[in-house]
Write a structure and sequence with these properties.
- There is one protein chain.
- The chain is built from 11 helices and 13 strands.
- By secondary structure, the chain is α/β, with parallel strands linked by helices.
- It folds into 2 domains: 123 residues, Nucleotidyltransferase, domain 5; 174 residues, ATPase, nucleotide binding domain (Nucleotidyltransferase, domain 5).
- A 5-stranded mixed sheet has the order 3-2-1-4-8. Strands 11-10-9-12-13 form a 5-stranded mixed sheet, with helices on both faces. A 3-stranded antiparallel sheet has the order 5-6-7.
- Strand 6 and strand 7 form a beta hairpin.
- It is globular.
- The chain starts with 5 loop residues before the first strand and ends in a 7-residue tail after the last helix.
- 46% of the residues are buried.
């Protein structure tokens, strides 16, 4: 009998779907990327998911009997037992049984996971957290989330919603968050927040020669442009990112106090400005944390890279062999 030495990972995002077939060494055999087309509705996206899986199976020429599972990583609230995406705002989905639909098409075990949980698995097996039993992966992108490994176990909570790091309160009477809370970290340090704050400040009279020379309309400014401006040396953008790093540092200090972790790993698009953000995050942690708990914690950028979601989704099948799947 041939060994089932492969798994498929699928990163289901609001704008793109990335699917990859990989082996247990973490090497990607082949991958396929396409637009999600979420605005065209649930049926269209589901068919694109199924077609993406079919594409990597056909391209790889690996017999699907050698594939031990298909892992799907996505943002939102997941019910992995039912194989259902309960809520995914980036897709406009409610109670979509995507796991069951994939299994019905391919007859391969399926597991759904939150994208941050998938990412921490990838970093644990192949990345910056390799060899550690206590690590946290933080994604700072459109939103903010965390995947947590504690004493060698993935922390998922009652309904797989653990790790909503972006929704811890940093300012008690701060900006209203989409979750209904106020002063969430996500309202202060996410890509969405960075763009909003930059627009507000420029409209209210602050200036940036760099941004004004490159952006026609203040309302079009994005977090990516703020990061690029900061790298260029723009004082307005550097100041804003220093504030973002400070708030992230406060949040990270809370995580260290809660989980007594060894490694904090940052990923996500906002962390393309890591040379500005990481030093202030580390500084804030050292200033605010219990010394005995923070002095040995390493705070690093992801080493797995952009494929962290697909690798983690597939990687679950290489570390949790006793887990029940659909």
């Amino acid at each position: 009998m041939m060994e089932k030495g492969f798994a498929i990972g699928l990163d289901l995002g609001g704008t793109k779907i990335l699917t990859a077939l990989m082996d247990k060494s973490g090497d990607i055999i082949c991958k396929f990327e396409c637009e999600t087309l979420a605005d065209q509705g649930e049926k269209v996206v589901i068919e694109r998911v199924l077609s993406s899986i079919q594409q990597v199976l056909e391209t790889s020429k690996i017999n699907q009997s050698r594939v031990r599972g298909i892992g799907v990583a996505t943002a939102g609230v997941i019910d992995s037992k039912k194989g259902e995406i309960v809520v995914a705002n980036n897709l406009g989905w409610r109670n979509v049984p995507i796991g069951r639909l994939i299994y019905d098409r391919f007859g391969i075990p399926v597991n759904l996971s939150n994208d941050a949980n998938a990412a921490v698995i990838a970093e644990w097996i192949w990345g910056a957290g390799s060899g550690k039993q206590n690590l946290i992966y933080i994604t700072v992108s459109t939103g903010i989330g965390a995947g947590i490994i504690s004493n060698g176990h993935l922390i998922t909570g009652v309904d797989n919603s653990a790790g909503e790091f972006g929704h811890i309160s940093i300012e008690s009477n701060g900006h209203l968050c989409s979750c209904g809370n106020r002063g969430c970290l996500e309202t202060l340090a996410s890509g969405t927040a960075i763009a909003r704050i930059a627009r507000e400040r420029l409209i209210n009279g602050e200036t940036s020669e760099y941004l004004s020379s490159r952006v026609n309309d203040v309302l079009d400014i994005t977090a990516k442009e703020i990061g690029e401006a900061a790298k260029y040396g723009d004082p307005f953008s550097i100041k804003l990112l220093n504030e973002v790093g400070y708030y992230l540092g406060i949040g990270v200090t809370n995580l260290i106090h809660l989980f007594n972790t060894e490694v904090i790993i940052f990923g996500g698009g906002v962390m393309n400005a890591d040379e500005i953000l990481l030093p202030i995050i580390r500084k804030t942690v050292q200033e605010r944390g219990i010394r005995a708990m923070v002095e040995k914690v390493k705070i690093e950028k992801s080493t797995v890279g952009e494929e962290v979601g697909v690798k983690g989704a597939a990687g679950l099948f290489f570390i949790e062999r006793e887990k029940e799947y659909i």
